Structures are given as structure tokens and as C-alpha cells.
Amino acid sequence: MESPRGSVSGTGLNTYVTQGPGDSVYSQNFWLITKGQERLYTGQILYMVNLDLSCNNITGEIPEEIGTLVALKSLNLSWNAFTNKIPEKIGALVQVESLDLSHNVLSGEIPTSLSALTSLSRLNLSYNILTGQIPSGNQLQTLEDPESIYVGNPGLCGPPLSKTCSTTVLIPSPLEDHEDARDMAFILVMSSGYAMGLWIVFCTLLFKRKWRICWFSFYDSLRDWAYVQVAVTWAYWRRKDG
């Protein structure tokens, strides 16, 4: 796109290109927005390295190749229609001092690589649809008026914003899962109680001879009583049918 000593910059739909020594150079005066200020540049801007594509209604994603422009000092892509995530490779712009991505449709989380831009003195990510926790980093903490950097992104959280990030997300399970768990617990408790009851009775009869005699006597009496009842009832119905 350019040599390290050249630049592509401009406002609106106008673009100005400067190239290295020996090449033709535009020398007319023009305004450039950088670090939030309009500056007038005149003559041959041979060694300025800036990219200003603001207010052009550009659509699509910010290309990953933006990270190859390692000589950039100022990058302004504001007031366009860029979508999707901010590319992680934007952290390769180690010399950038001003970065403005405001008033686009950028989504997803802010890349952590931004915290590595030690030369960054002005950042504007306002009025997008960014979400998640703001990356922590020494450079990001030194920026002036930090809350205005992220305004218009209700999905962002964490310092320097007052909105805290939730560390635990509780996902309610369906009602059927709760009912199945209750049924399983009830069956488990009933089975344990039944087994414990049988074990107590068995141990009692095993070690108490007197109780064992009483139990079997009661069992025999109950069996005889049941047998008599069945026999009497059976005889009654036979006589009635006969």
C-alpha cells in the first residue's frame, strides 16, 4: 500500500498519497484528523505516516493486513460501516499513537493485543457493539478520559467502566431434569431404607433367640389364620354356587 516513509491520508472521499524520494509527491495543503484534532499539513509530507479513511461509509471487515503497516503513527477508520471483530493483528502497530475506530458496527471482544501498544496515547472505540471485558494493561490505564473511549458499547464491562463483569454464569437446567433428579433421589432413599430395615431384622433374629422364637411363632399363627380364612371363604362360595 505504501513505503514506510509514505502515507495515505485524507478526509471525506479525498485521498492524498506521498511517496519516497525521487517519486512524484503531492504538495497541496490539506486537513488531517489525528488524535482528535484537525491539523493543516502543507508542502511535501515526506516522512509523515498516517492513514485516515474516516467518513467514507466503508463496509466489510477491517483486513488483517492492517497489522503489516508497522510504521503507522495514526490510524483513523471512524464513521464508516466496518463490521465483525477488531483484528487481533492490530496489536502489531507498535508505533501507532492515535487509533480511532469509533462509530462503526464492530462487535465481539476488544483484542488483548491493544494493551501492548506502548506508544498509544489516544484511543477511541466509542459507539460500536463491542462486548466482554475490557483488556487490562498498563498502557490502556494511562489514557486520558478512559470512559469516553468505550461509551456507546453497552456490552462492555470491567475497569475503567463502573459496570462489573459477571464471573459465573448460571444456566438453569430444564424442569424435566429437576424432576428426574428428585425421582432418582427418592428411589435411592427408599432402597437404602428398605435394605437397612431388613438388615436390622435379620441381625435381631440372629442374635436374640427369644425374639427369634416369638417371630416364628407369630409367623406360624399368621399363616394358620390366613389359611383358615381362605379355606372358609372358599367353602362358602362353593356352597353358594352349588
How would you sum up this structure, described in words?
With 242 residues, the protein is α/β, with parallel strands linked by helices. It has four helices and 13 strands. The protein has helices at 138-141, 146-150, 175-207, 209-241; strands at 7-9, 16-18, 30-34, 37-41, 50-52, 59-61, 74-76, 81-84, 98-100, 105-108, 122-124, 129-133, 155-157. Strands 6-8-10-12-13 form a five-stranded parallel sheet, with no helix packed on it. Strands 5-7-9-11 form a four-stranded parallel sheet. Helix 3 packs across helix 4 (209-241). The longest helix is centred in the C-terminal third of the chain and has 33 residues, at 175-207. 21% of the residues are buried. Residues 1-27 and 43-47 have low confidence and may be disordered.
